[in-house]
Amino acid sequence: MKIGLLGCGVVGSGVYEIISQNMSPMVEDFEVVKGLVKTPEEKILPYMTNDASEIFDNPEIDTIVEAMGGIHPAYEFITRALNAGKNVVTANKAVVAKHLNEFTTLAEVKGVKFMYEASVGGGVPWIKSLRQAMRIDEVTHIGGVFNGTTNLILSEMEEKGLSFDECLKTAQKMGYAEADPTADIDGIDVRNKLIISTSIAVKKQVQAEEIMTYGIRAIAPCDLKYFKSLNKHVRLYAEAVIEDGKYCCRIEPCLFDVDQPEAGIKLNYNICSLYGKTIGTLKYIGQGAGKLPTANAIVQDLLDIDGGNTALPKLCFGGDAQCGMSMLEGCYYVRYSADVADKLEAAFDGVEKTAVEVEGAKAFVTASIPTISLHDRIESAGVGVMDVFVTRI
Ligand code: HSE
User: Fold this and answer.
1) Angle between helices 188-202 and 93-110 (to 10 degrees)
2) Domains, the chain, with CATH or none
């Protein structure tokens, strides 16, 4: 297999390393012919180029690995590669989440492969496992801790009492965070991963605005202290339920008892789970971010292309499942600053709630309410994003 690599950063260099160092006898026949980098200064190895046409117009290159991230020019490069009859493997969840149906259809028309195992769960073989489960079961629940950066932040703040900013810096230094880490912190990266996972399960391209999303930007030490008193750990949890042709998706901080597997997910690890009628619950744990685990997932896709893995069901994203926003509910911890107490409390008028003691702030826990109602009420309060922090409890 002759490979053209788009992007030689953290993930791309990992792919190059696994292949060029022959880390497995199975990749002996693979060769990274060219690797695209943005600037002349980045051209530090002979295989690197600044000229994309050296990759796209090279008939010897049959497979493109896209490891640049972002929507543009990744979208244009992926469509160009597929149109040129080249297989595409990508780790880029942002572009896959947005164009999954389009890329899948184009690849089929052109008779090539489009694969994206590394886009969700990093090194965890999640997409393949989900598709495998769907050979027998309808998947009715998807859940997971899908972001290494926020997981590192939460687990290190909990365990070592480090600050949010210190932990974020570590995640950036380790190559886990996105170029713009607000995508991690605000749940956007997880949303892309949940779009991909749910789209596969419902056989339809799920849209970003259908996913109720809260991140961890506003978490404070007082929240962690309260959660500790409950003997629980907080994780940024993504979830989709699928029932009777309807689906509902949410991403939000969520508490887990210390002995639940999700509570034990630390640092850059992810947990990805599904439920199907005959298989029951399946949970997969592994490194969800980082150079070699993510590169490993890309090389696994390359091996599947090379070996012609056809035993998985055909993907389709033209189904007619509907989004049902009120299918999910929960009890919520809502912590807010005294400055916004009037507005916030008024927005929750009529909701059964219990005040809780949190150091230096006000907080209550609601009775079970639809998640969409929580979002509507907080939005109607019109408070700043740093003024309120919510967690499902
Ligand atoms: N920024 C992502 C994370 C990288 O922290 O999980 C892997 O998708």
Assistant:
1) 30
2) 2-115 (3.40.50.720), 126-289+312-323 (3.30.360.10), 329-392 (3.30.70.120)
